[in-house]
Structures are given as structure tokens and as C-alpha cells.
Amino acid sequence: MKKLLISIVLANLLVACASQKPKEPEAVAPAPVVETPAPAPAPMVAVDPLNDPASILSKRSVYFPFDVSAVQEADKPIVEAHGKYLSEHPDRMVRVEGNADERGSNEYNLALGQRRAESVKKMLELGGAKASQIETVSYGEEKPVCTEHNEACWKQNRRSDIKYQ
């Protein structure tokens, strides 16, 4: 009896499925193409690479480890880029300001700041800048960026800044 019932149900299902015609897809009209005029190109504004945050020339500080005056590998691309820029712009002048952290005597820090500034100057000249374009000065510990008394702060103060005039 069960088999007969199952057979009838299955037969009805097959008949029900076969009796419906498959729907034909309706023709869809393509969307109208609206042509918009191309926007006018933006006027070309000369961006000064010295003030463009995307340019390496916007970076103007070179940092040094404790008691070191040699430019570090991480900062060499910055100095080289400024040297190239100065060689391409012989009318530009820079002042390289050497700085030190607060540790050490005033005299020692002034001398260390001067060595740091001279080190950056030498690299700028190797990059193509003329010596007459570069002035060096040392502020020693007199112009700190950070005034706290810890290594993180001292690290920011051990630097040479490239300042365009």
C-alpha cells in the first residue's frame, strides 16, 4: 500500500512539473547611452616640490645618533635629493643648522652641532650643490624641538635642519 501511495505522489509531481511551460525571457531594452562631455583638464599649477608633502624634499631634518656627526644611511636619500635640487636651482640658497641634545657642555654641543651641519653640507656638495649655496651654523642645544628630559626627546634634538632662504 505504501509503495502505491508513493508512486501516485511521484507521478503527480512529475505531471505537475511537466505541465508548466517554461517562461521565455522578456526582451529587455538596453539602457539609453548618455554621453557626457569629458571634464576639462584641471589647470596645471606648478607645485613647489619643497612644499609638496609627497616629495622627499619636504623632509628637511637629518637625525643623528648620540655623539655622532656622520649622516646616517636612512637620511642619505633626503640629503642627496636636496643636493640634486640645489644643483638644478643654482639661485637657491640654504642654511644647514646643526643641533645637539642637552647632554654635554655648551662648548661641546656647539662643536658637535657644527660638525653635523658640515657633514650635511659635504653631502649636499657631493649631490651637486655649490659650496656658495650653503651656509652652516650650529645652535648646539639652544634650539630644541622637544624639551623633555628623556631619550625619545633627545633623539629629536640631535639633528641638522636644511632651511631654504
Topology:
Elements: H1 2-19, E1 61-63, H2 76-88, E2 94-99, H3 106-126, E3 134-140, H4 151-157, E4 159-164
Parallel strand pairs: 2-3
Antiparallel strand pairs: 1-4, 2-4
Overall pLDDT: 87
H and E string: HEHEHEHE
Shape, please? elongated
CATH class descriptor of the domain at 57-164: Alpha Beta
Low-confidence stretches: none
Termini Cα gap: 105 Å
Number of helices: 4
Radius of gyration: 36 Å
Structure class: alpha+beta
Please name the CATH architecture of the domain at 57-164: 2-Layer Sandwich
The biggest beta sheet is recorded as: 4 strands, mixed
Give the percentage of residues in beta strands. Answer: 5-15%
Assign the CATH superfamily of the domain at 57-164.
Answer: OmpA-like domain
CATH topology tier name of the domain at 57-164: 60s Ribosomal Protein L30, Chain: A
Describe the strand arrangement of the main beta sheet, using strand numbers.
1-4-2-3
> What proportion of the residues is helical, as a percent range?
25-40%
The number of strands is: 4
